[in-house]
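Protein modeling request. Please complete all fields; requests missing the sequence field cannot be processed.
Requester role: graduate student
Desired output: 3D structure, token encoding
Chains: 1
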Amino acid sequence: MIIENVHMFNLKYTLESGQSFRWNKVDDAYYGVVEGCILKIQQREGTLFIDSSRKAEHSELVHYFDLSRDLSAILTEVNVDAYMDRAINRFWGMRLLNQELWETIASFILSQNNNMARIRGLIRSLSEKFGQKLTFEGYVDYSFPTPEVLTDAGVDEIFACGTGYRASYLWHAAQNVANGDLDLDAIKRMSYSEAKMELMKLKGIGEKVADCICLFSLEHLEALPVDVWIKRIFEQIYLRKRATPREIREFARDYFGEFVGYAQQYLFHYAQNEPSWADAEHLALLSK
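Delivered output (288 residues):
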């Protein structure tokens, strides 16, 4: 499949920005598993070249990469200071993904107190043990296990994949989805506040994880996940003082507006890739 005339989209920045854990770069292509299908994607300027292990629908990929959204308008809205302007220009074209809900719930439960490499490893281990083997052009990966499979496996088997204390959280979430107590289709129709509260009913899901799920799967661009990095950024760059997650959320939403989720993603990825993100020269940007 070829998707032409793709505007304001950078595949590398999008897939390497910490919002998804299933993509691997091999030579000049990215391989990943999306809803039980291996995708191989290459970008050449404004064109995406996509091969897959089974037929992929054009509309599904446009939705997954959020290509129909007016990113220019969003970035104009959140580009309110020189610091944000630098982050936006550094990673111009990075978009938020619309990922499958169950895998996103499970992935961000596993993300708690973890780094990217370990999260990716845990997801790979669970998928190898409980998912279905997938192959495409010599590339091997596995589908993410269904809630039913993880429910039947039990906490001990999930723990054996290295998940630690998160095993019981993941099993509890899987059980609730499998028995219908957590209705994923209903959550997709909810407002941001409703979806967040529903997700937080699950054992082990607090505000940060719920906000990640809302932002990276449910298209609630007003969601603001406050992790260690976002807390540092707002304390050191914007507030210049210690602050609670609630204070950060209140400030950020007033400051950046309804698309604060996009603002945080650009700030997060900038700080992750710029060692001097909080030096004197960067701090001075907000006084200009």
